[in-house]
Amino acid sequence: MLKTKKRLWLRRLALTVCLIALGWLILTLWVERIGVARTWHKPVANASRKVIVIFDPDPIYNLDEKVCRAFANGLAQRNTDVVVATVSAVDETTLADFDAYVLCANTYNWAPDWAVTDFIKKHDALIDKPIVAITVGSGSTRRAQQLLENSITGRGGRLVASNTYWLMRPNDEQQLDKSNVDVAVSLAFGAGVQIADSIFVE
User: Which domain of life is it from (predicted)?
Assistant: First the structure.
């Protein structure tokens, strides 16, 4: 009797584990699929630099889009012509025309999203160009950030900065009274201004 109960319990446990694994796989494939094509352009007359910010949109929450657009606005404040594009919207025929690149990756399973890392592997235009890495996630992004940085440098890109922004983990311990997303957007804008001043603008 005890052996029968034990076997039944093990079968139920195995079924539960399989269902969880299957659910996790389905969720992973869903969030990792390449998103819709969207582009925003922040034209600046007589700009001294042209930069493209690239990301693959998260299907659950658009922190990535908000951060990328804020970063682009910061760059534009410093005489930089900026295009923000999702991976599927990138015009590969003009990719080499940009002076620098900002690559923003979402964190899934403690790693940068497949769309952005695949993009890095495929494009020679990134070689020996200044690249800013942005990693976004709910809070645990250290491994994803490191893997994104390694992808960029391994491809021959010149990593000039690497920033992280979080949906749930506080982005600034001194601003806990404010919306965490608003803080991330504000920090991204400031980072865009600073990086444009120190790297992109002559």
Answer: Bacteria
Structural contact between residues 134 and 163, judged by C-beta atoms closer than 8 angstroms: yes
The range of the structural domain enclosing residue 48 comes to: 39-200
Q: Which of 122, 114, 170 is nearest to 147 (CA)?
A: 114
- Separation CA 127–CA 120 (nearest Å): 10
Residue 18 sits in the same domain as residue 92: no
* Spatial distance between the Cα atoms of 19 and 168, rounded to a whole number of angstroms: 27
Number of H helices and number of E strands within the chain? 5, 7
What confidence tier does 45 reach under pLDDT thresholds 50, 70, 90?
confident
The answer to pTM > 0.70 is yes
